Amino acid sequence: MAFFIGRDKEVRRAYGFDEVAIVPGSLTVDPEDTDISVELCGHKLQVPILASAMDGVVDPKIAIELGKLGALGVLNLDGIYTRYKNPYEQIEKIVSAPDDKVTEIIQQIYKEPVKEELIYERIKEIKKENVLCAVSTIPQNAPKYIQIAKQAKADIFVIQATVVTVKHYSSSYGCVDLEKICKESGLPVIIGNCVTYQVALQLMEIGASAVLVGVGPGAACTTRQVLGIGVPQITSTVDCARARDFYFKKTGKYVPVITDGGIITSGDMCKSFVAGADLVMFGSGFAKAKEAPGKGYHWGMAMPHFYLPRGARIYVGTTGSLKEILLGPSKTDDGTQNFVGALRTCMGNVGARRIKELQLAQLIIAPEIKTEGKRYQKEQRVGMGK
Amino acid sequence: MAFFIGRDKEVRRAYGFDEVAIVPGSLTVDPEDTDISVELCGHKLQVPILASAMDGVVDPKIAIELGKLGALGVLNLDGIYTRYKNPYEQIEKIVSAPDDKVTEIIQQIYKEPVKEELIYERIKEIKKENVLCAVSTIPQNAPKYIQIAKQAKADIFVIQATVVTVKHYSSSYGCVDLEKICKESGLPVIIGNCVTYQVALQLMEIGASAVLVGVGPGAACTTRQVLGIGVPQITSTVDCARARDFYFKKTGKYVPVITDGGIITSGDMCKSFVAGADLVMFGSGFAKAKEAPGKGYHWGMAMPHFYLPRGARIYVGTTGSLKEILLGPSKTDDGTQNFVGALRTCMGNVGARRIKELQLAQLIIAPEIKTEGKRYQKEQRVGMGK
Amino acid sequence: MAFFIGRDKEVRRAYGFDEVAIVPGSLTVDPEDTDISVELCGHKLQVPILASAMDGVVDPKIAIELGKLGALGVLNLDGIYTRYKNPYEQIEKIVSAPDDKVTEIIQQIYKEPVKEELIYERIKEIKKENVLCAVSTIPQNAPKYIQIAKQAKADIFVIQATVVTVKHYSSSYGCVDLEKICKESGLPVIIGNCVTYQVALQLMEIGASAVLVGVGPGAACTTRQVLGIGVPQITSTVDCARARDFYFKKTGKYVPVITDGGIITSGDMCKSFVAGADLVMFGSGFAKAKEAPGKGYHWGMAMPHFYLPRGARIYVGTTGSLKEILLGPSKTDDGTQNFVGALRTCMGNVGARRIKELQLAQLIIAPEIKTEGKRYQKEQRVGMGK
Amino acid sequence: MAFFIGRDKEVRRAYGFDEVAIVPGSLTVDPEDTDISVELCGHKLQVPILASAMDGVVDPKIAIELGKLGALGVLNLDGIYTRYKNPYEQIEKIVSAPDDKVTEIIQQIYKEPVKEELIYERIKEIKKENVLCAVSTIPQNAPKYIQIAKQAKADIFVIQATVVTVKHYSSSYGCVDLEKICKESGLPVIIGNCVTYQVALQLMEIGASAVLVGVGPGAACTTRQVLGIGVPQITSTVDCARARDFYFKKTGKYVPVITDGGIITSGDMCKSFVAGADLVMFGSGFAKAKEAPGKGYHWGMAMPHFYLPRGARIYVGTTGSLKEILLGPSKTDDGTQNFVGALRTCMGNVGARRIKELQLAQLIIAPEIKTEGKRYQKEQRVGMGK
Fold first, then answer.
1. Per residue of chain D (386 residues), what is the pLDDT tens digit?
2. Which terminus of chain B, N or C, has fewer Cβ atoms within 10 Å?
3. Structural domain includes residue C3
4. Cα–Cα dist A237/A247, whole Å
């Protein structure tokens, strides 16, 4: 269906998590019989979930712990852990900053330069526990850091910016040759973020081992408010998954699509897979773990930007252990614990035994009705008056 | 109309209660001349309303009282009444639990095993008052409990899970043969919940006496948040009613459709019938009765789930007697009392003399405008400042 | 455009005030050059605005004052003024009732029977000031009261119920013959409320002098919550105006359409005319007048209903004089004062010199963006922190 | 796609800022390589941003400062600066007025007549600092004031009313001949506001040097509530940009389109350009500058209207310097500082090197999800409880 937003100007409608829902299938499956493992960069992940490279979410300890639980935490190479020998002092400053000072304090803390020896050390710290190690940086730093990562025996290298494209123009600096990095570095490279069929396909063509999908949909991300840019996650995931399927048909190479950003509940995660994702990535959900370095806070990677900070420090509280959040059992009923249990139960209800079957389940457009919430709150409000 | 949520991905739009409204007819009828009785499982119900098998809503006393008023309360065989000789002690614990402990406390209470002699006793307790007795359990327990229910002379057996299908796969346990239960147990069986034409039709084909329609639309149900699964009630009711009509045309057998979940006001109930329902089922509305065991609270059947609890304890307050809520007169103006009066008045306004005529009334899409509410609240706020 | 709310179930989309906006024209006109007068029941009204027959809004004094200002206040013959010699004592009880008792208190007050001599007296009270007098009752009382109204020399008789149709069925009472009343009573009769083309046309065909349009859209009306019934005002006005135009083409008789219900701001009023209304009727806006009997409160005509009360007592406050509200100057900027000035300015901006030209202006669908409001509130909140 | 709001009544759907988002491109560009300059009335503006002619936003000092930063502040010739020798006394009264008196106080202050010698003086004050000077008045005052403006050597003359058309009818006064002013005054004239293709084209045809686009979309503007009139900014910008392109094709003359009203964040500004604007104008964003005369408050030009005031005094607070707001660096993350940095970054992300390329970027319909906000607030609320 075409929409006209003005005279002769036709545009598409995009959809986000809260606008769709999954339809139960005609067959159900015992959740115990579901297989949620996926292949990523030549490794088999037992749990198709990545933790975002945010300083309040993933430190080396979290990366290790997640690896042991079957998932994957990505360490930010441009963050506090590679700028400071003792990162926790700095995190304490961020966590205890008053609301009206926090942007400035974060900007200040991130002015300290990254130390290359700390990159090496942090990776070693993770690898010595015998788990997969994934590290992340921005395109400009990728050529240099990937060499260090390789020496330190990292397994997966992530190149990530708000918006990544294969072609980039600058008159003042030489542009990063992503294709060269992918083909010559000797490490599998995940690249993102992108949201369109075209860019996802181009990233696959230059050799990305997986692509990250998502620009401007997240709660801790103000890209849309600051730049006007953003594509809701269901539509961008569908589009990029179509690029993956086309590229697979053409080349026989299957490049996983990772939905990254905006996932808050296990319901959002389930919808991502039905939209076509092979894996998902989120930060806020893990920031609630009692092991998380941010002590209940998280903040975006674009927040320290000096001229144009985006994102906010968000307090999400500490609600349970990393294991409870990932594998359960859940002590809450709001979709923020036991992501794996929710995924298996969802698969059971739609009759999918593997992630690739879940991708074939049916979605409907079904906006969350706000008045429903209103009623609900009203009832609770009555309760508080008791 | 088709909607594309991404490249070549076409999905349907589904609608909920708050998005539609009933259009008055060209003929009106005296509400006193309306006949709201329906047939269910070979019995004539004077009032086409069922109370949900929730422990805070239906205990044996409520089931008896509802039967005397012409409606039907369903007793949960997997709940507190069959686990505990003295269930009210346990309910007191739930009702008085602090908000942050309630999920754990409920999980604890429901660990106590069900006693088969209590199933027998509870049914007898209801039957000796000479009213219809309907009892409910999950599919796994159905083969065993239906025998006890039959011995105790229950009238109607309900098999209910979040999502029910005829076909189910498990490698670790033998699957429940719903068809066998329907055809050999000797008791009429109502099965649910389902939301699609296909599953509703399959349930009718294996011998269900009625089907329950509704997955993920209710206020006390967080299925959508946890699993991403849910279909708004108007669309699921329309679809399942179509299955009923097709099955009736094909076989001459009329299998009633019961809209279950999400009904809060009498307006929601009226819309369910216009969408095609033969009966409705709700819990929250009856939890407000001063006779309700939950003392103004209710909680969902999926809430005690150990690994993945869903639903919440909700305080709705105590607003009137069971009779006022069902038959009026109403002392409130918000659609939460006198459900029967509202149904008759609605039928009068659209010119329907029987429920089957009400099913032919006209709906329109007419979203509730939030700003209207805002204005309204604003005006009231001014009033409070007085 | 057709919408499917379920399998093979196609329904229309209806629109309300907050979903549309008026587009400025290619010609503008000096507001001083606009003519807003309309003809109603053989009389010329200088101002095309009626005040609703609500006891908190129109007493004989308000009816007189509105008449002098060029508008028309309708007196409720089933209300307090014809039940009590001293109505203001009763109003005081309603106004001072606590929130949780008000429905019961109103039900109690309206149990007092109507006195026929008071009907006669109230009309005389208005007529002796030499203004138009319009009175209103429900269909059942119409045959009797219209005779009294005629004797007392009322000018216009209004027959009004939540939903009115020409055909009505009752086994227990003889149905009111609206056609007979229209044709034999000798008084012009306005009938309502209706919302569809069919019913509006039928009312015109049996001799209504004007029709009232609106079921379930108003802020003080909970018809939609209680009965599920309601049609947003823009769509119902468009449809009934189409019936008027068809009937005029066929018979040469022009039967004005009056949009009644849901109008809160002068913007809503302007949109009603652009949707096709000849006149508008509202209550809440006049309840804010310092001369209003309700002292800043109003309540709906369906509120005293014994078995199924609908509507609520709403406090809107007292914000200005009746003249300021109707003719300005305005001391507020929110569209609640100077309705006539707003109408003329709107007509100027779309280039309409008469109401019938305003009916030809262009509407667009343009939902009010809630976030806009949020931002606005946020900014004000900052202000409060000052 | 056509929408029917009633029987045979087809209308268009219009879109606003919060309903669309910008899609990243397949090429990215270094923000340092973007050129944001535009031509306006024969002058080159380094920054395509105008500050609205609002008394709380632009005084001569702000106009000078903005000029030095490469942008353009428009001085209101019908406001306080030309009515009072000492305008700051009056502003102090407005700023310190209590909420319920402010409309009346503003009405009172604006009763003082405009002094022609103050018009001359204010323009001279700006021009002696060697920056561009733009001044604004309503159509009725244009013929007289444009002569004074020309003598005082103003560079750009703005004729602005809520709704402007080429054709206007009045029986009591001679209508302003906009064409004559444009063609004979010797000063470039910007005219507005308009929202339709037709009117924009007509204004270009009579010689406007640029057109202002926007009726009823702004936060400080209650046009829609009072008059029912308003067109969301994305649709009106697209339509008027189409008129510009048609006129350019026909005549070779390029008449810039300026989106005026409703822009709150830098994201809104970016979307305006993608919808087709050449420049943008806003007031609220600059009212937050510590140099702003309104001390954190602003109010609309229609607010002093005697019979029908529209707009409100809004407190936005003081958040940074004019330079920080316009050029950064930003200390906030909400899109209210560093508008130029945001524009360049947006252009970089969509691969546009000039404003005219940005106009070709892709938009999608992507409503801001309110529940997303709700979640976000909820999380923050938890934080506050800490």
1. 678 999 988 999 999 999 999 999 999 999 999 999 999 999 999 999 999 999 999 999 999 999 999 999 999 999 999 999 999 999 999 999 998 888 889 989 999 999 999 999 999 999 999 999 999 999 999 999 999 999 999 999 999 999 999 999 999 888 899 999 999 999 999 999 999 999 999 999 999 999 999 998 854 457 888 999 999 999 999 999 999 999 999 999 999 999 998 999 999 999 999 999 999 999 999 999 999 999 999 998 777 776 777 767 889 999 999 999 999 988 887 899 999 999 999 999 999 999 999 999 999 999 875 433 333 333 332 222 22
2. C
3. no
4. 15
* Residue at B8 is within a domain: no
| Cβ neighbour number for residue C130 with a 10 Å cutoff | 10
pTM for the model = 0.93
Contact C181, C150 (CB under 8 A): no
C-alpha distance across the termini of chain B, in Å: 50
Instruction: Return d(Cα A90, Cα A109) in angstroms, integer.
Output: 7
Tokens for B202? 């399959």
Number of domains in chain D: 1
How many whole angstroms separate alpha carbon B81 and alpha carbon B101? 22
Which domain does B210 fall in, by range?
Answer: 14-384
C-beta atoms surrounding B177 within 10 Å = 16
Substitution target in C222, C226, C235, C380 with the highest count of B β-carbons within 10 Å is C226
Selected for mutation to probe chain C from D1, D4, D5 (highest C CB count within 10 Å) is D5
The DSSP output letter for D303 is T
Report chain B residues whose CB lies below 8 A from the CB of A244: none
* Distant-in-sequence, close-in-space partners of A32: CB < 8 Å, separation ≥ 6: A344, B170, B171, B172
Q: Answer yes or no: C313 catalytic.
A: yes
Residue pair A361/A274 in contact by the 8 Å Cβ criterion:
yes
DSSP C129: T
Evaluate whether residue C4 is within a structural domain. Answer: no
β-partners of residue D137 are D159
Tokens of residue C290, six digits: 């310092």
Q: Is residue B1 part of a domain?
A: no
Q: Residue A43 maps to which CATH number? A: 3.20.20.70
Nearest-angstrom CA–CA distance, B19 and B23:
13
Tokens of B290: 């001063």
* Cβ–Cβ < 8 Å for A79, A283: no
